[in-house]
């Protein structure tokens, strides 16, 4: 595997520890990513040299803090190739961004009889806001299904997206299936019928290069914490003219122009959508994470993860005791792998792996409708990032084998 | 190797209960006096619990359905064994004892003995992420006996 | 002044720097507070030993992260003496908490003809959400005025709060006037007519002991960053039975119980109001700030700031060239002092003070209706915290004198 | 002492303009062809600018009202001096020169000379927090000449 990428382990102090007396193998990256030292160092530096509120003061610290905060916005703008920095709104995370959209664009543009189209593989954060909007507005929420291979069904998408469709909102990458969805094609389908396309990029932006202009998406939401940034910061990208037409989501300091006792007017983008004190340090830390990823190169990151999947997925698929959900072809699979060990509840499996130092998720992964669609109650999930190594994969495979043996023979042997 | 510690949790009796759960199934519709469906929001485990309380508040029959991990299934099985034939008040006391036990609080040995097989789940203290799996059944018992709905509010004033 | 409190300066590395070749004197604490080392250390420790997503995984890091996050909630519960931890909702900040209330409790309970009562000294964050709610609902927004001394007028409050009043929302402490409002009396007035009382605690909780049960408030919102915590974290306290009746504000991961394609049910408090990944490290850092303040003791903090005001305010009031807004009696005045140097625009004043190393705010302080009420366009504002010293006050007074001289004679002398 | 640096910003000519601003006041109602009210959201400074454009797009008259700091008032005064009698296109070019200048970008000396007294505000580069104060008047000029409303959208399609 690409040594340049593998060499980053030293940047992540958290990985250098034992868990339950075993070397920590962190495979829960789809839940949240670990942070390189440079990110926490940039937080410390901000707090201990420049900390002040932004856009508010004329003193030196306020000016430095403002410059650092807006520089972070520019870094994000370049990272996703937005047209202008004003199209980059800082949020609390993906969930915040998507709720903001449902409460502003959705509230203003969805009317009785309109249709909102999502997919059956959506995370609850890109599902419930639209479901509840549809209920409030007496609109219809439609789900695009999957192909037999576990990919988004484009034929079904073309059928579900109709002249009544106003919003199409789709995950760029699934947090369960390991699929990367054809956003550009979906954007075309949406735009052909005059609908907008919103993309939940939470699981894509940490792992692949994203160009919002090339994808031609109207909105793109993501979280900082999944791309090595701090918690509590995220981004909502939106096309300028759409953001401009939207009402503010929250009201308060810094988003206003004039405030009178009985009415108010709003300031320009992006600040119109950033009411109150934002997560200033969080934005700056996200900017550092963006620098870190850019430095390594998103192509290298993607390539490294592909190598892991190429190595691991066929082994899992070949194992009769293991059921893998999502595409079986490694080329169609991101570094998120949902699976079950037959006869062993994923919760028990996760506890066993944890005893071996291997951290995986078990549960419904905030995707209950997908679980129902797949006909499972829950799955285990291993998810990889650029600091994971071949050694990590081998530890994981060993732990799986031992867990199988334990539940088949372990305690019964002790009889 | 790391899995040795697992033996502390997955004891034979626990695996037996989860492989062959007791009182798994629904009661006759007319027999059900108290009922609840509860969920472990972390993992999606669900338990449906049905109870037949006699006129003098004795648990005359009990049954559960639902899916879940080894711990939640065996805990439900052991719970139903332990409370069948007990009075409502005693059963509530046992639920309290159980939830204290898994949180690591001290209890009189006599109280723990009351719990029967279920007392073996005290080992869950070393697996904090799994405490919820163990308590789900007992929590359901408590809610069902007190006629509360899922969020702990009285069923009557469901607004 | 209390030496125990004064001795904390070493805990704040940021204070140990020169700005424009002068010792930094940070008097912009009402905008945001500086952070003690222990707070950033707790962020670093979390990120580099325990970082994981909470309430989601069964592995060791997830368990540690969840325990740390919920421990932070308990610390806040104790700090404000809430009845239970479930009444403590983590938010992005005061603005987020107040908007959440307007969009949930307000949206559900305000109808045409109802009245919402706030005061003329409110920060935009506790003003525009209610103004916009009133506009949406055809309700009436009423303002409690001030006494001649610049305090909230309780007689006017009693007149404005009527049987039609549903919500009273008031700042505990003003971010301009330096007044601390009689919350307990206002709570009584509100409860007598069956209204609820919401308190914007942003400027109070960093400086005085707050007991939400003694104050008998229904909701209390505040920001972490103003009380030495990280940016991007805040708290909304609410009485259990009120929170329980409220619809969720945002939808997504972790706030659900069951999710079906066309409907969903919600989980219990406090998680019902915490959709998506929260600012986990931020909450933990806030918990550390709470520990830090508790350790010093809020009584000591309040006493230290009172000593500063006792020393400074009479000097400003006695100066004919200076206009002080708000109460002139130091005993009625918090460590937030709004003022103007006659004939000098506050913006020019702030630049001059900055050249002397003294950081103050100048502007409308997100309180335009108050500015209009006071008949000024803008004011300067000096605001103090526990790390400010008598030396800081003297530097500030010297800088004021020199600024006066500069604008009266400085450049003209050079003629 | 720290205030010495202030002399770089508060030069005599700047203080003169702010003490005795030129073209402060409103035009006769019928004379106003272009108008705007702009605000510096940070501090609350407001400027109202009125312009009389001749039929061949020459700035025949100009006046401003509003409150603000020394910098914003003197900048408005110097701006009105500089653009009076200029064509719309020249005035727009000057606005661009000014905003480049205060951001520290290089410009031909001839362009800067065009700005007249206003060129003295290049010193604002060392006071980044005050750049907005200096540009408010020039920004208002640009918007008013282009018939845009406050947020930079064309006045016509005000939705
Ligand atoms: C009285 C008052 N309320 C509300 C706020 C808003 O707080 P935040 O910006 O942290 O949301 C502030 C601070 O700016 C304030 O001083
Ligand atoms: C696909 C997807 N969408 C949305 C989210 C929500 O992100 P967050 O919890 O950071 O708001 C996640 C992560 O949990 C996700 O995987």
Automatic annotation (TrEMBL), chains A, C:
UniProt domain Aminotransferase class V: residue ranges: 25-396
GO process annotations (BP): cysteine metabolic process
Keywords, in A-Z order: Lyase, Pyridoxal phosphate, Transferase
An example Gene Ontology molecular-function term: cysteine desulfurase activity
Catalysis: reaction(s): (sulfur carrier)-H + L-cysteine = (sulfur carrier)-SH + L-alanine
Cofactor: pyridoxal 5'-phosphate
InterPro entries in the cross-refs: Aminotrans_V_dom, Aminotrans_V_PyrdxlP_BS, Cys_dSase_SufS, Cysteine_dSase, PyrdxlP-dep_Trfase, PyrdxlP-dep_Trfase_major, PyrdxlP-dep_Trfase_small
Catalytic activity, EC: 2.8.1.7
Top EC class for this record: transferase
The keyword Membrane is assigned to this record: no
Pfam family name, one: Aminotran_5
Domain of life: Bacteria
Similarity field: Belongs to the class-V pyridoxal-phosphate-dependent aminotransferase family. Csd subfamily.
PANTHER family noted in UniProt: CYSTEINE DESULFURASE, CYSTEINE DESULFURASE 1, CHLOROPLASTIC
Function comment: Catalyzes the removal of elemental sulfur and selenium atoms from L-cysteine, L-cystine, L-selenocysteine, and L-selenocystine to produce L-alanine.
Protein name according to UniProt: Cysteine desulfurase
Native species: Paucilactobacillus oligofermentans DSM 15707 = LMG 22743
Lineage: Bacteria, Bacillati, Bacillota, Bacilli, Lactobacillales
From TrEMBL, chains B, D:
Record domain NIF system FeS cluster assembly NifU N-terminal: where: 10-133
Gene3D superfamilies for this protein: 3.90.1010.10
GO biological process, one term: iron-sulfur cluster assembly
Organism domain of life: Bacteria
SUPFAM superfamilies reported in the protein's UniProt record: SufE/NifU
Name of the protein in question: NifU-like protein
InterPro entries: NIF_FeS_clus_asmbl_NifU_N (IPR002871)
Family assignment from sequence similarity: Belongs to the NifU family.
CDD domains, A to Z: IscU_like
UniProt xrefs under Pfam families: NifU_N
PANTHER family, sorted: IRON-SULFUR CLUSTER ASSEMBLY ENZYME NIFU HOMOLOG
Gene Ontology MF terms: iron ion binding; iron-sulfur cluster binding
Alphabetical list of NCBIfam families matching this protein: SUF_scaf_2
């Amino acid at each position: 595997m690409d040594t340049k990428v593998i060499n980053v382990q030293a940047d992540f102090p958290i990985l250098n520890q034992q868990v339950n007396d075993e070397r920590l193998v962190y495979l829960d990256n789809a839940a949240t990513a670990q942070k390189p030292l440079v990110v926490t160092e940039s937080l410390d530096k901000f707090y201990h040299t420049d900390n002040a509120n932004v856009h508010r003061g004329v003193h030196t610290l306020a000016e430095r803090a403002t410059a650092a905060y807006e520089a972070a916005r520019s870094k994000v703008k370049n990272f996703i190739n937005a047209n202008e920095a004003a199209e980059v709104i800082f949020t609390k995370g993906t969930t915040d961004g998507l709720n903001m959209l449902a409460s502003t664009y959705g509230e203003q543009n969805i009317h009785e009889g309109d249709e909102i189209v999502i997919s059956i593989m959506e995370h609850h954060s890109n599902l419930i806001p639209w479901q509840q909007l549809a209920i409030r507005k007496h609109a219809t929420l439609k789900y695009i299904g999957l192909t037999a291979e576990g990919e988004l069904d484009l034929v079904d998408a073309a059928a579900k997206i109709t002249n009544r469709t106003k919003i199409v909102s789709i995950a760029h990458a699934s947090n369960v299936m390991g699929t990367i969805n054809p956003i550009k094609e979906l954007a075309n389908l949406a735009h052909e019928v005059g609908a907008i396309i919103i993309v939940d990029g939470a699981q894509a932006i940490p792992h692949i290069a994203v160009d919002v202009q090339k994808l031609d998406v109207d909105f793109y939401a993501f979280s900082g914490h999944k791309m090595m940034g701090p918690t509590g910061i995220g981004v909502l990208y939106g096309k300028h003219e759409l953001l401009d037409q939207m009402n503010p989501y929250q009201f308060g300091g810094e988003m206003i122009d004039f405030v009178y006792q009985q009415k108010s007017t709003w300031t320009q983008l992006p600040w119109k959508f950033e009411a109150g004190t934002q997560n200033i340090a969080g934005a700056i830390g996200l900017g550092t994470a963006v620098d870190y990823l850019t430095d390594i190169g998103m192509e290298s990151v993607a390539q490294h993860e592909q190598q892991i999947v190429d190595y691991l997925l066929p082994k899992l698929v070949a194992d009769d005791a293991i059921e893998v959900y999502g595409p079986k072809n490694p080329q169609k699979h991101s570094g998120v792998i949902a699976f079950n060990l037959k006869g062993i509840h994923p919760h028990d499996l996760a506890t066993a792996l944890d005893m071996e130092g291997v951290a995986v998720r078990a549960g419904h992964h905030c995707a209950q409708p997908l679980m129902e669609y797949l006909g499972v109650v829950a799955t285990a999930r291993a998810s990889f990032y650029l600091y994971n190594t071949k050694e990590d994969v081998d530890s994981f495979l060993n732990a799986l084998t031992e867990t199988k043996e334990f539940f088949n023979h372990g305690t019964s042997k002790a009889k | 190797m790391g899995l040795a510690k697992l033996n502390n949790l997955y004891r034979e009796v626990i695996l037996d209960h989860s492989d062959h759960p007791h009182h798994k199934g629904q009661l006759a519709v007319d027999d059900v006096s108290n009922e609840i469906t509860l969920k472990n929001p972390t993992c999606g485990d669900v338990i449906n619990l049905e109870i037949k309380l006699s006129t003098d508040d004795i648990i005359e029959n009990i049954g559960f359905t639902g899916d879940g991990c080894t711990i939640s299934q065996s805990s439900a099985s052991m719970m139903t064994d332990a409370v069948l034939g007990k009075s409502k008040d005693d059963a509530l006391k046992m639920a309290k004892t159980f939830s204290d036990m898994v949180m690591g609080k001290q209890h009189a040995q006599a109280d723990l003995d009351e719990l029967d097989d279920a007392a073996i789940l005290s080992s869950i203290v070393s697996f904090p992420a799994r405490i919820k799996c163990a308590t789900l059944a007992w929590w359901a018992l408590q809610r069902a006996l007190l006629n509360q709905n899922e969020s702990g509010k009285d069923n009557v004033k469901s607004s």
